[in-house]
Amino acid sequence: MVEPSPPPLPRLSLVSGPARSGKSQWAEHLAHASGRPVVYVATGPRLPDDAAWQRRLERHRRRRPSHWACLEVEGALAPALEALDPDGLALVDSLGTWVAAHLELEDDAWREEERSLIAAIGRCPVPLVLVCEETGWGVVPATRAGGRFRDRLGRLQVRVTAIADRSWLVLQGRVVDLLAISQPLPPRA
Question: What angle do CA 49, 51, 54 make, to 5 degrees?
Answer without folding.
Answer: 95
